[in-house]
Amino acid sequence: MEISAITESYYNSKNDYFPGIFCASMNVRAFGVTVLIPLYSLVFIIGVIGNVLVVLVLIQHKRLRSMTSIYLLNLAISDLVFLFTLPFWIDYILKGDWVFGDGMCKFLTGFYYLGLYSDMFFITLLTIDRYLAIVHAVFALRARTVTFGIITSIITWVLAILVSTPCLYFFRAQLEFTYHTCRADLPQESLKHFLRFQALTMNLLGLILPLLAMIFCYTRIISVLHRRPNKKKSKAMRLIFVITLLFFLLWTPYYLAAFASAFDDFLFTRGCERSQQLDLALMVTEAIAYTHCCVNPVIYVFVGERFRKYLRQLFQRHVIIPLAKWLPFFSVERTQRANSISPSTGENELSAGL
């Protein structure tokens, strides 16, 4: 009845029986039903609408086709990959039974990890892109091309797929008593070792290495901007910095909770109460992490000036103008005039544009 096969596996890696006590997790499961279903339904709706709009804006406006725009496009696709799995986990919570079969268990768990790693990788690439544009501006003129952006994006997706591949092999649907689960199918001890490996991989690739890269990049960026103030570059960096900061704020608690749950035998004294606390921590932090999927479009609206302009143009072109042909109180000429704003001069980058 958990939100994902990964969290399900963490729960099942523990022995729920302690001397004289059956360690039930009904309170944790009740929380999942009453709180997570409305929350994840909202995240799914906002996330899909927001990220689809981001993709449409990026594809429709040719002047936004830069290396940065390629990374932001892939970041939105990464969020959509993650969101694709959400209705299935909602159904899993609601029914307490995995009804989608073995193939979908493997596929959706793989997508979970694919979305997780690709999201982090593209945020790291965006930070490096800002670093090159500001710290090594001359080199960036040659290196920061659309072609290079596409090549690095393909490599990034391949790496994310490779890291996610173990799930396709180990995760499967299983019959337990009268219900089915979707989790890693391994003996108890092997399952613990596998989850420890996964927790270490997540924390290394998804937290520690990107964090070190970002600390280095932003330290150099701030140093350069302090010596040579540049309003446009500062504006461009602000958007990427907010995206990066929110990613870490929303995902770090889950990474740490997964690590604590995987290594609970070493970190904590065994007990029923401790087990329930870890289960609840996993569920709550995973819920916080999932909200990240709908955060980036909201950031673009509030932080990105040009994104709001292009969103208005998109809405005018595909909604207002068609309506104006049928409804007399809409002025077609005025709408078309508003829609034909000339592209601004200056730095032709999406990051500055957003």
CATH fold topology of the domain at 5-119 and 143-206 and 252-303: Rhopdopsin 7-helix transmembrane proteins
The CATH architecture of the domain at 5-119 and 143-206 and 252-303 would be Up-down Bundle
Class of secondary structure makeup:
mainly alpha
Radius of gyration: 23 Å
How many beta strands in the DSSP annotation?
Answer: 4
Rough outline: globular
Q: Can you identify the CATH class of the domain at 5-119 and 143-206 and 252-303?
A: Mainly Alpha
Question: What is the strand arrangement across the widest sheet?
Answer: 1-2
The CATH homologous superfamily of the domain at 5-119 and 143-206 and 252-303: Rhodopsin 7-helix transmembrane proteins
Helix content: over 70%
The arrangement of helices and strands along the chain is HEEHHHHHHEEHHHHHHHH
Terminal CA distance reads 40 Å
Pfam family, one: 7tm_1
Protein name: C-C chemokine receptor 1-like protein 1
Keywords: Cell membrane, Disulfide bond, G-protein coupled receptor, Membrane, Receptor, Transducer, Transmembrane, Transmembrane helix
GO molecular function, one term: chemokine (C-C motif) ligand 7 binding
